[in-house]
């Protein structure tokens, strides 16, 4: 299987529409790949909170249309990163950080609304609603499980995806450079503990004053890094064998030793 991670540089001087056109051209250049992955909120930038409301769109909006045509022209499965999804209008309007997965025919196959929102009491955590559904997508070669950026810090989400049949975990992100070490560590940890491939695709550049970590990475089920990008915009392409997940789980069947439903002791004063 051949995957290409497009580590997009988000430049505040580039318009959202110009970036859509540029990224669509990059997707078209990946003909021959089985799967192409884009970062989180690449149209405007994951920390450009002031643009969330104005650039919010529906799942069949301008980003989907541009990516649909590009996926169809390239003949690839496309994880189109995420958009700010708008649901409803007026006072009842809600926003989600929503990933789009497209088939080689350009069809929208699945969406995933980010479950864990970053920011604590500000930013994404206050501007967006949380998703509540684990999402997997069956590809011809494997089954992928979907997560986004801050989700990477919550291992129970990934165990749920593995229980749902995922062998490859795809994590688009807009991860800040000041926590780059956590990005690399957590990507490897999720691969090792779930005996799965991890494809973690981040942004490059600086947007809303936040320098991005870059360093998109592909990790195998043993936690070995197969490929890693640098700091700038880059296309990271790697070939790997999806069957290695089943082999790894058979050779080292740690997942079978999980003990679930353990009693939680009461808190003592």
TrEMBL record:
Family annotation (InterPro entries): C-N_Hydrolase, C-N_Hydrolase_sf, UPF0012_CS
Domain CN hydrolase: 1-242
Claim: Signal is one of the keywords in the record: no
Alphabetical list of SUPFAM superfamilies matching this protein: Carbon-nitrogen hydrolase
PROSITE patterns tied to this protein: CN_HYDROLASE, UPF0012
Coiled coil found in the keyword field: no
Swiss-Prot/TrEMBL keywords: Hydrolase
Molecular function (Gene Ontology), one example: hydrolase activity
Entry-linked Pfam families: CN_hydrolase
Superkingdom of the organism of origin: Bacteria
Family: Belongs to the carbon-nitrogen hydrolase superfamily. NIT1/NIT2 family.
Entries under PANTHER family matching the protein: DEAMINATED GLUTATHIONE AMIDASE, NITRILASE-RELATED
Name of protein: Carbon-nitrogen family hydrolase
Organism whose genome encodes this protein: Streptomyces liangshanensis
Taxonomic lineage of the native organism: Bacteria, Bacillati, Actinomycetota, Actinomycetes, Kitasatosporales
